[in-house]
């Protein structure tokens, strides 16, 4: 039986392992985290609506339910030409027929970034945000700045959705506990129209939401640096803040940057439509580690990472003669689909070549996202079939 090793136990890697197992491969998943961190529902940790344990699914439980092997270790090197990878504890490994890279992405480093916290970081970082918000709530006043950055070399690696979600949730949380008027919330981003990939109508609706929620907005100004209590822009104007919640744009994973695999300037793996890494017959890449090619509004998303995992499993099975079918591609599945939560409701953001919409879903949107979280856990643990 052919052996496939999947590097990275996140949203893309886990779905790839599940799909490969269904195709009848011998699968090993290697990750540096013990759990699958379900990022889309981690947005509720800062306001205490979800506990960290509700947002993590132990990889051991998924592996047991889905029948793949699990190794917890850190990948420190990949050598494509030699067909090997190296783990921190176990050392060099060559015992595989196919390798799937699903290590996620890193972030660009801005000057003074250590003075900020990101909603798209590690589980530990999101807990730090919760602690800081708890402190401000205890003091019953504060200034919070929320923002995200861009990467001109990888426009699809900008992650703004979760920043908006946490900001709207914090607004509604402060309102609910009756202290919103003592807080100043400011949103900032270097691009003139952050969120533009969702279309003009969505931008107008977001503007209205900012106004209704009393959120200040500073956009179109490049960020010079962050200090302990301020965001400083290129024209030396600044935002004073007790807490700076900032998500830089994605950057290539250091292991990929240091590898001999085919990659873009920004350090994302260059792949064919089949998800095979260009020039390497037995190496595939899924999710945020890969450079996504397609329309200018494209974005790295969890649902696309999962599609890429299933496409990869299918194509390896075809290559190995397990089934006689055509190869599949990921590009036809590129769209933006996000249930943007506001804490008291939500909005369905959708973008494809023919449509750009943001449909308000008061109250029900919030519960739909909560329901998705429950479905996701049950599906990964093999308790219910895949619905979406
Ligand atoms: C807060 C937030 C909210 C989001 N909301 C949505 C949403 O609503 N809808 C949507 O579609 N997408 C959403 N996304 C995007 C989505 O989460 C990502 O696109 C998705 O997680 C990408 O999957 P991945 O497997 O490529 O990377 P990840 O999920 O980041 O997984 C990478 C894995 O690799 C492991 N790893 C990293 N380095 C190493 C190493 N050296 N050795 C071993 N293991 C390693 C990590 O621990 C991790 O488990 C959101 C993202 C964030 C951050």
From TrEMBL:
Under catalytic activity, the entry for this protein gives: 3,4-dihydroxybenzoate + 2 bromide + 2 NADPH + 2 O2 + 5 H(+) = 3,5-dibromobenzene-1,2-diol + CO2 + 2 NADP(+) + 4 H2O; 3-bromo-4-hydroxybenzoate + bromide + NADPH + O2 + 3 H(+) = 2,4-dibromophenol + CO2 + NADP(+) + 2 H2O; bromide + 4-hydroxybenzoate + NADPH + O2 + 2 H(+) = 3-bromo-4-hydroxybenzoate + NADP(+) + 2 H2O; 3-bromo-4,5-dihydroxybenzoate + bromide + NADPH + O2 + 3 H(+) = 3,5-dibromobenzene-1,2-diol + CO2 + NADP(+) + 2 H2O
Its cofactor is: FAD
List, alphabetically, the Pfam families matched: Pyr_redox_2 (PF07992)
Cite the EC number.
Answer: 1.14.19.55
Molecular function (Gene Ontology), one example: oxidoreductase activity
Q: Which PANTHER family match?
A: FAD-DEPENDENT PYRIDINE NUCLEOTIDE-DISULPHIDE OXIDOREDUCTASE, PTHR43755
This protein is called 4-hydroxybenzoate brominase (decarboxylating)
Give the organism the record lists.
Persephonella hydrogeniphila
């Amino acid at each position: 039986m052919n052996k496939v090793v999947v590097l990275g136990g996140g949203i893309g890697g886990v779905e790839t392992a599940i799909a490969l197992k269904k195709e009848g491969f011998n699968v090993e998943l290697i990750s540096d985290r013990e759990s699958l961190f379900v990022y889309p529902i981690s947005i509720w940790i800062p306001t205490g609506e979800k506990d960290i344990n509700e947002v993590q699914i132990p990889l051991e439980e998924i592996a047991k339910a889905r029948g793949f092997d699990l190794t917890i270790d850190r990948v420190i090197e990949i050598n494509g030409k030699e067909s090997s990878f190296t783990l921190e504890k176990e050392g060099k490994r060559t015992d595989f027929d196919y390798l799937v890279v699903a290590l996620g992405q890193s972030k660009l480093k801005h000057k003074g970034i250590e003075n900020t916290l990101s909603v798209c970081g590690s589980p530990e970082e999101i807990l730090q945000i919760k602690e800081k918000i708890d402190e401000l709530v205890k003091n019953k006043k504060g200034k919070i700045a929320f923002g995200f950055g861009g990467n001109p070399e990888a426009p699809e690696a900008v992650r703004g959705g979760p920043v908006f979600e946490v900001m709207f949730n914090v607004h509604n949380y402060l309102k609910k506990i009756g202290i919103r008027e003592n807080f100043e919330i400011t949103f900032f981003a270097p691009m003139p129209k952050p969120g533009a990939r969702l279309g003009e109508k969505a931008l107008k609706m977001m503007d209205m939401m900012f106004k209704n929620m009393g959120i200040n907005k500073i956009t179109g100004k490049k960020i010079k640096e962050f200090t302990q209590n301020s965001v400083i822009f290129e024209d030396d104007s600044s935002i004073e803040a007790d807490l700076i919640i900032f998500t830089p744009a994605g950057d290539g994973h250091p292991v990929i940057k240091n590898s001999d695999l085919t990659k873009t300037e920004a350090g994302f793996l260059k792949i064919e439509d089949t998800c095979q890494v260009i020039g390497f017959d037995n190496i595939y890449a899924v999710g945020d580690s890969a450079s996504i090619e397609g329309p200018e509004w494209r974005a790295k998303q969890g649902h696309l990472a999962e599609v890429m995992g299933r496409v990869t499993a299918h194509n390896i099975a075809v290559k190995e003669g397990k089934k006689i079918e055509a190869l599949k591609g990921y590009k036809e599945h590129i769209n933006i689909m996000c249930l943007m939560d506001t804490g008291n409701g939500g909005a369905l953001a959708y973008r494809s070549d023919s449509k750009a919409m943001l449909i308000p879903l008061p109250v029900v949107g919030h519960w739909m996202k909560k329901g998705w979280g429950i479905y996701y856990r049950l599906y990964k643990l093999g308790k219910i079939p895949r619905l979406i």
